[in-house]
Amino acid sequence: MLSLGIVPDGRFQIRIGVTHQDTQASYAMEIDELTYSSLNALHPLNGDRVRLSPYPKWDPYRNTYYCSIVRTTDAVRETLYFTCTKLFAEQLQRIRQLKSSLIPGYELVPELPLADAANEAEPHRTGRMSARSIRKAARYLMIAGLLALLCIQVKDNWLANSADALKRDMGELKAAATTESTKADLPQSIGSLPIRVEPVPVVKNIAEVQQETAPPQETAPPPPAEEYKEYEVVEIGAEQPFFGLPKGYVSLTFDDGPSPYTKKIVDILTNRKLAATFMFIGQNVEHNREAVAYASEHGMAIGNHSWDHSSKLTKASPAEQAANLARTSKLLESITDTPVTLFRPPYGLINKSLISSAGGQQLKLLMWNRDPEDWNADRKEDILNYFHKVSASGGVYVLHEDRLTVEALPEIIGYLKEKNLKFAILK
């Protein structure tokens, strides 16, 4: 989510950046007043990064749609929920379906000017409003307020906006206000609220695909090069950030390690004669060097995920960026005796300065085009459902070293093998 506010002509607008496979694009979308008021009440841009869920849900108890955002800072990640309309849900569905018409790229276009910044004082509509508009606004705000109170008050105890709180209470809540009047006032066609798609620069694909040695079985020493393996090594290009593989290939990548789960993930992969790409954080490496060595000894590709996973790396000076990356690469190389050639920016945030800093250290930018959001899952089935819903061919999946991911990994691998895809690690 890039911006939220009121444009000079008084319309409500949200601006988001979306990745589809090996493509990124920016959308400026007009939204209805009820959705805007409910979302804006969360002050969504008061954080370092905000992700808007593309999957609104229907709540039969409150007789309304709701959606969520995930707001992330260096120290906290929180899920917040807001009421939305059927129209907004249809708009997000339309965006999910816009895949083939986008132009590949990596830089989001500049934001359109808004009447007021959404992360400052709450914006007000410019110009005069009709009496009907004022009545509508009052009705929307009253409904949104009642629904918000119902979401957070249970048995006289006030709960924070969190995923767990909402899920516990969803089955107990009953509707206190109807949304029929709201539905009557909203447009019935998605076409009445336009979506503008703005293309961005092209990202080139990989230059070639080649094979290297196989991984060993669990704690066994590295096998000879001629041993059978079920993956290939893909050398990605250095000219542009890399998002996706050619059709017929798939790659699993794991962020934010090393962790207590690193060895378990490596063992699951090697038992199936597979390998993956691990993007390690420097601070974590300091406390878990053995896991890095174990992954390297078993044929995993290892990359740089910054020293501290700060969302402010793009705002740092070129010298600070270079020092951050160099410190991480130096530590990794001291453990693996292998040059580090991959860099994945924290949260996928990049700008020209960071691209230049990485290039100056011969680091290739590894992005992704499939995100199951395993870090936000409540059950392993939530992760598996994503794999079944999204085409896997050409996918570079971003996963994380979490318990549920480890539990789901054998089934993930089994499903991808059923699709007759060639597994790849990236270098």
From TrEMBL:
One of its GO terms (molecular function) is metal ion binding. PANTHER family: CHITIN DEACETYLASE 1-RELATED, GLYCOSYL TRANSFERASE-RELATED. The keyword Metal-binding applies. This is NodB homology domain-containing protein. GO terms for biological process: carbohydrate metabolic process. Pfam families: Polysacc_deac_1. CDD domains: CE4_NodB_like_6s_7s. Keywords: Hydrolase, Metal-binding. Signal peptide: none annotated.
